[in-house]
Structure formats: C-alpha cells, structure tokens
Amino acid sequence: MAEVAIRATGLTKWFGEGETRTVAVNDVSFEAYFGEMLFVVGPSGSGKTTMLSMVSGILRPNAGKVEIEGKDIWSLSTNQIAEFRLAKLGFVFQDYHLFPRLTTVENVAIPLILQRRNWNEALAEARRDLKIVGLENRAELPPVKLSGGEQQRVAIARALVSRPDILILDEPTASLDGDTGRSILHFVRDEVLTDKRCIIIITHDPRIFEFANRIMNMEDGKLTNIEMVGGKAQGVAHET
Amino acid sequence: MFGILRIAYKLLVNDRAKFAALLVGITFAVFLMIQMTSLFAGVLNRASATVINIGAPIWVMDPAVQTVANTIPMPDFVLDEVRSIPGVNYAVPLFSGSGLAKLHDGTYQAVSILGLDDSSLFGRPHLLNGNIEDIFAENGFIVVKDSEFPKLENPKMGTEFELNDHRSKIVGIAEVATSGLFGIPTLYTTYNRARQYLPNPRFTISYILVEPKTATDVAPIAKKIQSMGYLALTKDQFMDKISNFYMYQTGLGVNLFLMTIISFIVGLSISGQTFYTFIIENLEKFGALKAIGAKSSELVSMILFQATFTAMTGFGLGIGLCAALIWLARLRLPDYAAIITYWNIGLAFIMVVVIAAVSSYVGVRKVLRIEPFDIFRG
User: Fold this and answer.
1) Nearest CA-CA partner of B186 in B258, B277, B261, B125
2) If you ran DSSP here, which 8-state letter would residue B132 be given?
3) Which residues are paired to A12 by β-bridges?
C-alpha cells in the first residue's frame, strides 16, 4: 500500500457570521497518496479551492485537521507553516502568477531563493528544470514573451524546482487549448509524477480526467464521492 | 536574504517606467528642497559675511543691532570700559559703513567700507597683492577681489578713484572667505581713515572686537558688558542673531520654508502615488510569493528595500542636480548666493526618509493584508 501524503479529517470552513454565514467546505475527509494524481472536480463554488487551500496551509479551517506526512500543519505557527509550504509543497496557480519583470529562469528560481540558496546556484538549478520542461532556450526571456503553454510549463518548473513532495495544480488547462492542455498533463504524468510525489489537480475540464488515478467529486462544500479512473497509476489503487 | 532583496531590486528597476517616475518624483523633490534651503543658507552666510571675514571671537554692540550692516555707533568710552574688564586680552574698534565711489566713467558705485583698528589691524584680510603696511599710506585702501570686484572696473594696484569726494588709492588686493549679501564691493582701510572719509554721527565705533584671555572668560565678559547696557555676542551667537532676523523678521525664511514644504509634498505625492501603483500592480505576485512560502517579514523587507533604494538614488541625483545647477548659475552669476551645507543635506535626507517611509507604509499594509487564498481563488 502506498504511503499517505495528506490526511484531511473533518475539514470545515465557513465565511461570515449569523445570517450571512456560508459554509464553503463541510466536514470533508480524505487521504491522498504518494505516487498518485488526485483530481478534485466539481462545479464552481463547490469548495474545491477552499478545501485545497486548507490542505496546503493557506487557509485556516474552522474545524478539522490536516496532516501532511504525519505532521498536523495547523498546529504550527504562521512562519512555520510558510516554511513547511516552501519545503514540501509546490503550487501551480491558475493564472501562473509569474513575475513579468523577471526573466523566466529567475521566476523558476524563486522558491530556491526564498529558501536562502545562493543566487547563482538557484539559477543553475532553475536552468536545469527549465531544460526538463523543454524551455532551456527561453531562460532569459521575460514570461510575457512566452505562449500560454510555455508559461504553464514555467509555472510547473517553478513548482518543481525545490523538489516538493506534493504538487498542487489549480485548473492547469483552464486557459490552454485542448492539445496544449493534454501535452501539459502528459508531461506532468510522465515526467513529474513519481512514487515519492503526490499530485493534486483542481479542474473543471473533463477532457483531462483520463490522466487521474482518482477523482474526488465535490458539491456544495461536501465530498460526494471518490472514484477510481484507469490512468497510469504509479503507486496506488484505492477504492472509494 | 540577499537573493530576496535582489529579486526586489529587479522587480523595481526592470519596471522602467515606474522606476523612472519614482526617481523623477524624489529627485525633483530633493532638488527643490536642497535648492530652497541652500539658497537660504547662502543668503544667511552672506548676511554674516563681515562677522565671518573679521573673525573676532566676541562682538560688542548696541543691543538694538539686528544685522551686521545695521550698525548703531557706540561712544569711545565703551571701548575703554571693555578693555578694563578682567579676562579681556584685548579689545579693538571696528568701523563699518558704506560710501560712494566715483568710477572713471563718471558713474557712482556704492561700496562697503570696513575700518580696522590702526594699531593692530585686527580682522585684516588675506592679501593677494600688496603689503598690509601700505594700508597706512596716504589714501590707502585694500579692495576685496570677489564677485563684486568688477563693479569697481577691476582696479589694479595703484588705481585711484574718488570715494565720498576724497581721493583714494588701491594699495592692496585681498581675498575673503565670504562675499557680502548686498552685491557691492568691499574696501578695507584703517579705522581713522574710515572715520575721515565717511560722514558719521557723534559716535563712531560700530563694533568692539574682543579677544578673551580664555574661553571661560567669555561668559563673565558678556555679563559685565550687559551690565554696561551693551550686548556682547560670540561670533556664532552674532551669526545666529543675524540668521534669526532674516528668518523671522523679513518674510524670507517663511517663504523659503513654505517652498521647502511644498517641494516635500510634491515629492511625497508623486513618489507615494507611483509606489502605491507599483505595489498594487505587483500585489497578486506578492500574494503568490506568500502562497509559495515567503514570510510576511521577507515581503516587508522587499518593499522597504525598494522604497529605500529609490529614495537614496533619488536623494543622490537630487543633490547632484542641485550642485550642478549652482555650479552652472555661478558661471553666469558669480555672486549667486547658494551653498549646500550638511544641514541642507541632513534636512533633505530626513524628508526623503519620511517620503520613503510613508510610501512603503502604504505598500506594506497592502502586502500584509493580501491573503494567499485570494491568489489561489483567482
């Protein structure tokens, strides 16, 4: 059996108080494993992003517990959570959030620089990861000179450069055409996913469901079901 | 931390339009602040030119004197009385007045005349040409070669002209530390010749210059002179008195103060607004950094570094621009009264620090409030 990367128990989050109180995530529990690509799907407003924000130490839950590699992250201080995220998690945001005033390689090096690594070493490692994503010849260009698919790959390289155990991708194909989106997912599945890495993808896009090992459906803040998909599972096969 | 600051630096300078706008704002503000205050410092320095050039440690005068040019003559017995005060090493009279020199083309030129004590010539200027003893020669005057010198048609050794209808002759050409405020040439002669050449009332001593035996004698001497009904001020006190007069009783100080404040507000507005826009445009990126794992303290240090770097660069450029303008102005206007002092620079520095602090405060508040969740949510 594969090792548990994330264990979420009874996660609940609401916004507002009294009559305006809205429950965004309601008592969600699940586990994510190393070696799998777990998709979180559901309609807009179903609580996917809120749930993953709590899982990744970005948004404090009102109730529940999140354990990453056995550590209860919400028992840590704010700075400790930031350090934990930097060391263990990699993020690919929906809008990429690349710095337009930095070169591509500098953008990729940011997590290493935040880890206080030497500037030149960080850039050397970033170049190595740009090569992995096939953009070594774009290293000195600003991100605005790259296509959407290339920017997505830069964002993935940035998320990977510090070698995190868990990678979270938010709507990775939302602003890409079908072919580019699929090529990105191929790349993530074939090059990024390893037995020692867990990848969680938030998506609306049914065209890429085939890449998932498991799909977690959410609706109205609740986890409705987790289903197995055929995809190339590298480590796990858990039944719902 | 160096790498984080390097990112901050690149984010700032690579946004050339905003960086240029920030620099222009701060440079312009510093330029105006230093220009205004240096102009004022120059005016004050020149207003105290005689005090600086004569260099006496203690100046005795009528209490109603406001500036060195506004003399109220004292009777001779005051000099004797001052000389008899314990702690006085020596005391000499100084005549300060103005006359009219008739130039060779028939026009008149106002001149400032300083009459030095005949026996000691205390306060004599440094001679470029001539011999100081020649001041005792018949009709002898020493002319100061400063920016006003050409107004006397660039006199040479031996040049003669009429001064208050008396024949006078240049026996020396001198230099002094500071030119006067009123844009007229300065002549030195002996105290007694000055009295002869210039119309004067019953009393003729403009100032009594005192050298105390020791520094501790200054206070008792001043007290004794006060009891005589006169005022004794050290060189610095007299300069302060003159400065205060121009600052508070002429409107000059208030106007320059207002201009300095306006410059500060202009600089604060331009740089504050531009920096705020810069932060707002990068706010999501700062939020992304927070989500990736940057601590709030690191983001704050990035913003503080950007504000400080911009402020210090603008500060340096502003000082350079001001110095260049003064230099250029002096090429055309040799008596342009502006000097950049440490005080001017210090004041401008404090104001720039305030501009940087206010600008970055707004940015820091924004960045501290941004939630990575908002970035995640898109």
Assistant:
1) B125
2) G
3) A63
pLDDT band at B108 (very low <50, low <70, confident <90, very high): very high
Tokens of A182: 């699929």
Mean pLDDT of A126-142: 90
Counting every residue, how long is chain B?
Answer: 378
Q: Which two tokens stand for residue A174?
A: 């939302």
| pLDDT tens, residue by residue, B254-310 | 888 888 888 888 878 887 888 888 888 888 888 888 888 899 899 999 999 998 999
Q: Residue B117 pLDDT more than 90?
A: yes
Is A68:A76 a contact under the CB 8 Å cutoff? no
Residues of B with a Cβ under 8 Å from any A Cβ are 1-4, 6-7, 10-11, 14-15, 282, 284-285, 287-298, 371-373, 375-378
Q: Which of A91, A52, A56 is nearest to A73 (CA)?
A: A56
Q: Give chain B's mean pLDDT.
A: 90
**What letter would DSSP give residue A230?**
-
Distance, in Å, from the CA atom of B320 to the CA atom of B226, rounded to the nearest integer, reads 46
Structure tokens of B195? 């009295």
Going by C-alpha positions, the residue among B291, B361, B306, B314 that lies closest to residue B34 is B314
Helix B296-332 and helix B342-369, axial crossing angle in degrees, nearest 10:
150
* Of the candidates B179, B186, B125, B111, the residue with the CA atom closest to the CA atom of residue B335: B179
Report CA B38 to chain centroid distance, whole Å.
Answer: 6
Structure pTM? 0.77
Q: CB B289 to CB A122 under 8 A?
A: no
Strand partners, B170: B141
- Edge-first strand order for the sheet with A89-92 is A89-92, A166-170, A198-203, A37-41, A214-219, A222-228
What secondary structure does DSSP assign to A98-157, as a single string?
Answer: --TTS-HHHHHHHHHHHTT--HHHHHHHHHHHHHHTT-GGGTTS-GGGS-HHHHHHHHHH
Residue B289 C-alpha, separation from nearest chain A C-alpha, in angstroms:
8
Q: Smallest CA–CA separation between A2 and chain B, in Å?
A: 26
Closest CA to B161 of B153, B150, B96, B182: B153
Distance from C-alpha of B141 to C-alpha of B172, rounded to nearest angstrom: 7
Winning range, highest mean pLDDT, from A161-170, A222-231, B351-360: A161-170
Closest alpha carbon to A90 in A181, A162, A28: A162
pLDDT reported for residue A236: 42
Cβ burial, residue B80 (10 Å; 0-12/13-18/19+) = exposed
Q: Can you tell me the distance from the alpha carbon of B12 to that of B20, in angstroms, rounded to the nearest whole number?
A: 10
Assign B295 to helix, strand or coil. Answer: coil
Rounded mean pLDDT, B337-349: 87
* CB contact A76 to B (< 8 Å): no
User: Quick one: which of B132, B137, B139, B136 has its CA closest to B172?
Assistant: B132
Q: Which residue of B has its CA nearest to A158?
A: B292
Q: What pLDDT is stored for residue A179 in this prediction?
A: 78
Helix (H/G/I), strand (E/B), else coil: A19: helix
Element housing A72 (H / E): strand A71-72
Classified as helix, coil or strand, A55 is: helix
